[in-house]
Structures are given as structure tokens and as C-alpha cells.
Amino acid sequence: MSKLAQYSADPNIRIITGACPHDCPDTCAWQVAVERDSGRAVDIWGNADHPVTQGRLCGKVDRYLERTYHDGRLTTPLRRVGPKGSGQFEPVSWETALADIAARLQALVAEHGAESVLPWSYGGTLGFLQGEGMASRFFNQMGASQLARTICSEAGFEGYLYTMGAAEGMEPEAYAHARLILIWGSNTLTSNLHLWPFIAEAQKAGARVIVIDPAETRTARAADEWIAIRPGTDGALALAMMHVIIGEGLHDADYVARYTEGFDALAARVVAWTPERAALITGVPAERIRTLARAYATTQPAAIRVNYGMQRHFGGGMAMRTIACLPALIGAWRQVGGGIQLSASGAFRHMDKRNLHRPDLLAGRTPRTITMNRLGDALSLDPTVRARAIYHPRPADPMPTAADAGAPVKALIVYNANPAAVAPEQAAVTTGLRREDLFTVVLDHFATDTADYADYVLPATTQLEHWDMHRSYGHTYLALNQPAIAPVGQSLPNSEIFRRLAAAMGYTHACFSEGDAQILRALVEAQTHARFAGITWQRLLEAGFARMNLPQPWLPFAEGNYATPSGKCEFYSARMAQDGYDPLPTWTPPRWTQSSATGVEAATLPSRSFICISPPAHSFLNSTFANLERFIQREEQPLLHMHPVDAAACAVASGDVVRVANELGAVELPVLVTERIVPGTVLAPGIWWAKQSPGRRNINQVTTQDEADMGAGAIFYDAVVHVEAVARAEPKQAVQTAAAEMADSVMA
Ligand SMILES: Nc1nc2c(c(=O)[nH]1)N[C@H]1C(S)=C(S)[C@@H](COP(=O)(O)OP(=O)(O)OC[C@H]3O[C@@H](n4cnc5c(=O)[nH]c(N)nc54)[C@H](O)[C@@H]3O)O[C@H]1N2
Ligand SMILES: Nc1nc2c(c(=O)[nH]1)N[C@H]1C(S)=C(S)[C@@H](COP(=O)(O)OP(=O)(O)OC[C@H]3O[C@@H](n4cnc5c(=O)[nH]c(N)nc54)[C@H](O)[C@@H]3O)O[C@H]1N2
Ligand code: SF4
Ligand SMILES: [Mo]
Description:
By secondary structure, the protein is α/β, with parallel strands linked by helices. The chain folds into three domains: 78-151 and 370-470 and 477-515, Rossmann fold, CATH 3.40.50; 155-346, 3-Layer(aba) Sandwich (Dimethylsulfoxide Reductase, domain 2); 605-745, Barwin-like endoglucanases (Beta Barrel). The chain is built from 27 helices and 27 strands. The strands form seven sheets. A six-stranded mixed sheet has the order 5-4-17-16-15-6, covered by helices on one side. The chain has a six-stranded mixed sheet with strand order 23-25-24-27-22-26. Strand 24 and strand 25 form a beta hairpin. Bound molecules: ligand MGD (2 copies), iron/sulfur cluster and molybdenum atom. Residues 23, 122-125, 130, 151-152, 415-418, 421-422, 443-446, 448, 460, 494, 614-616, 621-624, 686-687, 699-700, 703, 716 line the site of one ligand MGD. One ligand MGD is lined by residues 23, 122-125, 130, 151-152, 415-418, 421-422, 443-446, 448, 460, 494, 614-616, 621-624, 686-687, 699-700, 703, 716.
């Protein structure tokens, strides 16, 4: 019997529909069973009617009730009593906290200007309302610094747009029809689990699944083939594939002629990109590149799932732009099951959010925009350093100078984010957060690394306790989340915290008194684009989700219709030339090649130096869940995965503790020796809380604030580290079981 049926038969149970708020492409629709008499949620499961959720949540959110009711939940506002970073607080009332915060902010705005206030938020929830709904109204009214949210996907996203015009592509359902699937820089079974059933269906029907990744992830294990690639070299692989496809006449000349721009220039460009040349760069043997290119061009339908792992490098934008050319070159878009998906968010791109965010409240002011990845720089009191944090996403943008730096940041308001754990160059971030003259407010569920540095910590509600609405970046369904339980303790939704703060600041605009359900309903009802036809508030209330009004199957580019300036897939992009880029696909070397003594194309790093990547641990969601026993037990401890050859070069074995260091910082980690990573690259699964890591530091000690080539995107996986043993330990049981756990590729 399904959970829905089981609980529906119980008169003491109410069933509430909702959606997972996490930063995950799957945006699962869920149902929650709540006891009528106690008001307590007793169970949660995936909505069986949702075509992508298919009744299942992941192994993290399966346990969402444990997280919501956890003893560590913040239940009252807290005011700092100890030194910054110590995490010493006293409880205070909401009235006291809000009045004091408002008074402090007003004084700073009066003395230093509104730009001295910096919001810093990201993916704790992706909800329209608890994300930037009320918050952006608040900061727009104030005229605070704007934040460029660049920490995750910007490089690849911008690169994709140059080629494709919009973040549109395959829908997950279509992957079931593919005969060849390339999973490129994505750990699907960890970070996009609900795509897997469609891939598995295709695989069962005979499709070949190939994973292109520096690590043999659980996804690579479940695939038919793992192509081990050096980080940051995917562009070279794609160029060599095009060399083979065009050179052997395997492209779809008809599709190319009708729906693409710049084929002749592309053909001329890729002549030099022989598989032999790409082999030196990527570490993938030339013959394997040829076989891959031929298989890709001659198997139909051919699908690519490319994701953000491959764009966290300096050349991430160009790499994505280049890979995005492949489906058009072979005409893959003609068929259901052919094409590529980077993000499905473009399905919602016509959504009108002006009434939600109220940019009109800026009333003509144009505050500076700060790149979130440069939080360390932004918090500097040195204008030359601070200027580096001014958003400049394209080479054609002028480089900001000290004269553009503006006022020092005097107040930092953090919500839906944990920068002390997740932001690059941790030492710079914590130096800034420790500033006595910085007024920091953190809204969260738990006392995170960042909360420890706050002057005030405000308790926020979880998704079980508030309203929200979600789009998805992995599929084409909207979802509505209804509150299932009363707020835990004195916690409040972000929307209500900003609503009350607005009142305390004396902001009287009517938009600050709109209620949560009212705001969401108005958002639904404000949509006029045909893609929203038939999506009503009532329908969302009843079903919990609704597919965007797109045909199914959806063949977005079967007949061209690209949202680029030319209306075609742009192999040649005039817009790129204007913005200061090479207008044709090329390989932009990653930063780590600068440490090579042998040039960029056959790059070698000095002895005991390695490329360091830190993709998500399976049981954490960025730094979320990383404080809870159940998930810590699953991941066991922070680790550094090293290939046996590299471990031998450093004379270390599993269980030994090494110092992982570069010019930015250092972290100490136990080693796990494994063949499941390419030699020359080390991998530290993330994102552990710093305060639960050795020496209260995590892997972001060694990551850089530097921008990628496009969108000022973050380049977390473009670090060079030096590794040396600091302690010999008995090989720990824990390390061995972590290795065993990695081998397991079940959907847990
Ligand atoms: N369980 C879980 N799920 C998550 C998250 C989580 O933390 N935990 N995070 C969520 C978020 S915010 C995001 S952005 C997505 C991230 O999910 P993805 O977009 O899949 O990105 P990553 O997990 O960063 O990296 C995916 C894979 O890329 C590989 N990789 C690293 N560098 C390169 C490279 O240069 N080339 C190639 N080809 N591969 C490379 C990594 O080894 C990794 O296996 O997942 C979301 N889902
Ligand atoms: N080394 C390394 N660093 C990385 C990455 C990596 O792969 N390697 N990945 C990067 C990527 S892709 C991303 S997206 C970022 C993610 O960085 P963040 O978006 O900061 O993600 P989380 O660490 O999950 O922190 C989210 C916080 O929001 C809180 N939260 C959740 N819901 C709510 C709510 O309703 N209200 C409030 N007030 N708080 C809420 C959670 O409790 C949690 O503490 O990290 C980046 N950092
Ligand atoms: S798979 Fe992603 S969207 Fe689904 S429940 Fe887990 S974290 Fe949430
Ligand atoms: Mo992300």
C-alpha cells in the first residue's frame, strides 16, 4: 500500500503537499503526514503523481523531519556575547533583536550610505518567496549593494547562452529514448538522482552510457564506460570530437545548413584539434577520442547531460559553449532523446517577477554590484582589494579600480547560505567576518560556521513550516509548498523576518504588508506568457505541481528556433566577439596549467603538487546536512582521495594525515588511496563544516576567489595544492568503510 493510501485511511492524519527547497536540479514534489491532534509531522515521501519525482525522495530529504525537529535547531533570536567566531550568544526577544538591528542598519546607512550594507544569500532554499521574495524588496528599498550570485553556475550558464541563446534543452523524460548518453561533468546518482531512472530505462533498452569525469564516481560505476579526464580540459575533448566528426563527414549537413551559424569557420578552427593534440591535454587516449566521436555522431538519438562540475575552472564558460555546439553539429535535436541539458531553468524564463522583487523600489538608484565569490575581498578595508569584488563578468567590462570600490562593507546580512564554509579563500572570508566594525546578521536553521561570526543570529523556519513556490533547473514543473506544521520554537520565515525588519526600519510601502500566500498567488496570477496557460493557484493548491505549458515530447530545437541573435545555434558568435571573447569554440586553459613547467598543452605540475577538486559528498547538500549525526556517519570524516601513484610519490598510505596547502591556505586531511581518481588530481568531498573539520578549516582554505572566463563564475575545482604527510596513523577502519561505501551505487 502506498504511504498516501495508508495515511489517507487514518482520520488523525492530514496530508500536506509541498516541494523540496534544496539547491538540486530535481525539485521533488513531496507529501507530508501530519497528526491532527499533536500537529506534528510524522512522515514525508515523494509525490507519486509527479512524473520526475516518481514517489521517491533522496536519502537526505527522506530524513527531512529529523532535520526539522533536530535538537540543534535555532529556536530564539541570539545576540553575540563572546568574540567573533566563538559562537557565544545569549537569547533575546524578537522585539529586541529587530529593534536593535534596524537601529544599527539605519545608523550605518546614514553614516556610510546604503551600499555599505551587503546581502549575501544563495541556495539554502530555491523558493521564490523565501529566497529573494521579501529580501529583494527590503534591500531594493534600502538601496543596499546588489549581489551577483556567481558561486555555482555562472560560467557554464553564460557559455551555454552564447551558443544556444537560452538555458533550454532536453527534458529529463526524453533521456529514456536515447541510445547513447554522455554524462559530462555530472555525478547524476549523487546530484541529480531523479534523472537516473530515465537513463536506466534507456540503458535497459540498450543505450550506452558514458561518463566523462576525473573521478570514477558512483555514476561512472553505474555507466558502461568511464572516460577519465584531467580537470579543466573538456573543451579540448569537445574540439577533437568535432575534428573527427567534421573531418569524417559525420555531421548532419542539412541541420547545420538550416539551423546553425558559422559552420565553415568552425570547420577551419577544428582542423588543428587532432585527437593526438587533445590527448596530450586531456589525458584521454587519441583512439578513445576517435571512437567516442564516431559513436556520438552515428548513434541516434544521442543525449548529453552536462553539468556544473566541468565549469568550475577558469575556462569553464568557453568549455560549456564548445560542448553545447555538439548536438547541433550532428542534428541530435531532431529526435526525442537527442540533444543536451545543462539547466532546464530556461523553461521558466518568461516568468514575470517584477511584482515579486520590486526593482522599482530602487527608484532610479543604481547601487554597486558585488560578486559573491569575492566575499573575502569585499570585506576588505583596502579599496584596491575591495574593488576586485566589483562585478565585472566579461573581458569587455572595464577593470574596476580603487576609485570604483565605494564604501567599505559595514553590515553583512546572510540568509540561505553558509559562506564561512562554502565561499572560496576561507582565510580571507574569516578575516573579514572577524572585523569588529562589521555588523553581521545571519538567518539560518542551525548555528553554522557563519552564524558563529554573527552579531545577531535569527532563527528561520524550514520548508515544513512556511509557504513557497519553486521552479526547477532539472525539469519543467512548477511546485507549490504549503506549510505542514507550526514554526519550531520562535522561528520565522525569511519573508516574515524581512517584513518585520522593514517595519522596524520604517519602510511603509504596501508591498511590505502582503502576506506569504498572497504574494505567491499574485505571482501565479501575474503571468501572461503562453507557457503559463492553464497554471492556476487553485491547481497548484490541489496537485502541488504543474507542468509548464510545453508540448510533450518537447523538441525545442528540432527546427531551429534558437533564442540567439541569429536565431540559429551559434558556432560563430558575434556577441562573444563584442564581449571580448574568441567568437569560435576554443580551449581556454584552466588556471592550474600556470603552475606547469612544460607549457599548457602537455602540462605537468611540480612534484607533490596536484589539481584539487572538491565536488559534493553524496550525503550532504553543499554544507547542509553536514552538521547532523546521521549524515556525518554516512560520510564518516573529511578525506582527501589520492591515486596510488600520487600517494606513493608523497609516501603516504590510507589513513595518514596530510597537509594540503597553497598560497591561500592549508587544511589537514586523512588520505584515502583509491584508483577511482585520475593521477595528478586529488579530490576532497565537500562541503564539511569548518568547525567540524581538523583545525576548524575545510577545503575552501585552498580555493581561489578568482573569476572564471565568463559570468564571474566560481572556479572551485581549479586549485593547485601541495601535499605532504604530517602524521602517520593506523589505517583507520573509517577510511576503509568510506571506500566500500563509495563502491555502492544504489539510489540511497
Ligand atoms: N547530494 C548532493 N546533491 C547536490 C549537491 C550536493 O552538495 N549534494 N549540490 C547541488 C548543487 S548546488 C549543484 S551546483 C549540483 C552540482 O552537481 P554537478 O553539476 O553534477 O556538479 P559537481 O557535483 O560539482 O561535479 C560533478 C562531477 O564533475 C566532476 N568534475 C570536476 N571537474 C571536472 C572537469 O573539469 N571535467 C569534467 N568532465 N568533470 C569534472 C566531478 O568529479 C564530479 O563527479 O548538485 C546539486 N545536488
Ligand atoms: N569547495 C567547494 N566549495 C563549494 C562548492 C564545491 O563544490 N566545492 N560548491 C559551490 C556551490 S555549487 C554552491 S551552490 C555553494 C552553496 O552554498 P550555500 O548556498 O551557502 O549552501 P549551503 O552550504 O547548503 O548553505 C545553505 C544554508 O541555508 C540555510 N537555509 C536553508 N533554508 C533556509 C531558509 O528557509 N531560511 C534561512 N534563513 N536559511 C535557510 C541552511 O540551513 C544552510 O545553512 O557552495 C559552493 N562552494
Ligand atoms: S533529490 Fe534533490 S530535490 Fe529531491 S528530495 Fe533530494 S535534494 Fe530534494
Ligand atoms: Mo551549486
